[in-house]
Amino acid sequence: MSSDGMALLAQRLQALTDDGVKLNPATANPAPLGLYGFALTTALLQGAKTQLTEPKGTSQMAVSFGFFFGGLAQFCAGLLEYQRRNTFGTVAFCCYGAFWMSLAIFTTLSAAGVFVATPVKGDRLMLTLWGILTFLLWLCTFHTNLVTCWLFLSLAILFWLLAGGVGYPDQTSRVTLTKFAGGWGFMVAAVAFYDGTAALMKDVYGKQILPVFPLKPVNKVSLGDFGTKRFVDAEKQAAA
């Protein structure tokens, strides 16, 4: 390799190192763990919403998973994304991990009589606010891929559907809307399972097995999945 080529390679390696990207990352990709924790716990709860399973028992089981798999494991995935300098992954996984743990502790304390039963208007407001938060996170996915982008948009819609079903005056319409929201939630969980599996297989096999349809870089920054962001200019210089 010529001296110019060596210089370009050194520049690229330095640029990637400065941004936290390594050819062989020091840490494993935590995104599949976070996505699986979110997907499985969400799907479990939708069994109760759709009444495909016993509503009360399945809700309690989902709350139990919310403490650890959907909550703690996902929150830890967010902390690990911090080490990889992935701000988006850190915020997203920590937010939803904290959501599940908060929901689990509130439900547990309510069942124990420490807290009052879930207030209808408060529940509706909580779900609406989480839909807004998810929508704001969706605005930060336009440089990732189509699967991740759809995951956050569909999740925002799920929160708003659930909020609409809370306290609906007509019981028949409320049950119908809640069942529809549960079916929509299964779709959201399936997308998260797919996204997590695509990231895991890419890391294990060293190539993209399941397509995620990357979107164009925004402001010269690309985040093809939940992995560490990459500056497009540095990659183009190395390929030149």
Question: How are the secondary structure elements laid out?
Answer:
Blueprint: H1 3-18, H2 31-49, H3 55-83, H4 87-111, H5 120-138, H6 146-165, H7 171-205, E1 221-222, E2 230-231, H8 232-239
Antiparallel strand pairs: 1-2
Helix pairs in contact: 1-8, 2-3, 2-4, 2-7, 3-4, 5-6, 6-7
InterPro entries: Gpr1/Fun34/SatP-like (IPR000791), GPR1_FUN34_YAAH (IPR047622), SatP (IPR047623)
Family: Belongs to the acetate uptake transporter (AceTr) (TC 2.A.96) family.
GO biological process, one term: succinate transmembrane transport
Fill in the keyword field for this structure.
mainly alpha; 71% helix; 240 residues; elongated
Main beta-sheet strand count, sense and barrel state: 2 strands, antiparallel
Q: Quickly count the helices.
A: 8
Kindly name the structural category. mainly alpha
Count of extended strands: 2
Shape: elongated
Total separate domains: 1
Low-pLDDT regions? none
The string of secondary-structure elements, in order, is: HHHHHHHEEH
Distance between the termini: 13 Å
What order do the strands of the largest sheet run in, or round the barrel if closed?
1-2
Helical amount among residues, as a percent range?
Answer: over 70%
Query: Which strand-content bin applies to the residues?
Result: under 5%
The radius of gyration computed from the alpha-carbon positions, rounded to a whole number of angstroms, is: 20 Å
